[in-house]
Write a structure and sequence with these properties.
Layout: H1 2-51, H2 65-88, H3 95-101, H4 108-129, H5 137-157, H6 162-183, H7 187-202
Helix pairs in contact: 1-4, 1-6, 2-3, 2-4, 3-5, 4-5, 5-6
């Protein structure tokens, strides 16, 4: 009888600890998804501001030193990101299959690297979403395109939220198309941009 009481106590204590942990982790995920949405709506706002800008000519040399420093950082991380994704996007498998394969076998280091750089890029994307990127339309487009591709990666990394990131990816894709129309990107330029990204991932 004593053992039963002790077992019940231990089980109850374990459940309490687990519930507390679940609440903490659940709260973190909710905050993270909320931030993802804020980032998207910030970029959406910047596209609207670009659409209704009073000055038709992009501003030049009006950004801070920190802005350019962070810009160099996100561009550097993006090249590193593409290099990681290229290794996963082989002839034998799609990019999505390559990402999911990291959860099996001895791929912990690769998975850790992908997770870390994905989060670093998203933090930078969030930072830039709160800057006046409507004054820098080409860089705004760069960020929106990057965010769209990160959603594809996150959709594979966080399968429990795959529908969320899939929908967010679609929204970024639509936003990208809207901005391209505003900037005046021609169909040829759109195709060239798409091919350049595909070539980076496949060569």
């Amino acid at each position: 009888m004593t053992y039963y009481i002790e077992d019940s106590y231990i089980e109850s204590e374990f459940e309490e600890i687990f519930n507390d942990w679940y609440k903490i982790e659940g709260l973190k995920k909710i905050k993270e998804l909320s931030r993802q949405l804020r980032t998207f709506f910030n970029y959406r706002t910047e596209v609207i501001r670009y659409r209704f800008r009073s000055n038709p000519f992009p501003a030049k040399n009006c950004a801070s030193t920190k802005f350019f420093s962070q810009k160099q950082k996100i561009e550097s991380f993006t090249y590193e990101y593409i290099a990681i994704l290229k290794k996963l996007n082989t002839n034998a498998q799609t990019l999505e299959q390559g990402i999911r394969s990291l959860f099996f076998g001895n791929n912990k280091i690769q998975l850790k690297n992908l997770l870390e750089i994905t989060e670093k890029l998203f933090i930078l994307l969030h930072y830039f979403s709160e800057e006046n990127l409507h004054d820098h339309p080409k860089f705004l487009k760069f960020n929106i395109t990057l965010a769209k591709n990160i959603c594809l990666v996150k959709k594979c990394l966080y399968t429990q939220f795959n529908e969320f990131f899939e929908e967010l990816e679609i929204n970024y894709n639509n936003l990208e198309g809207e901005l391209e129309d505003l900037i005046g990107t021609t169909p040829v330029e759109k195709e060239q941009s798409k091919k350049q990204l595909e070539e980076r991932l496949s060569t």
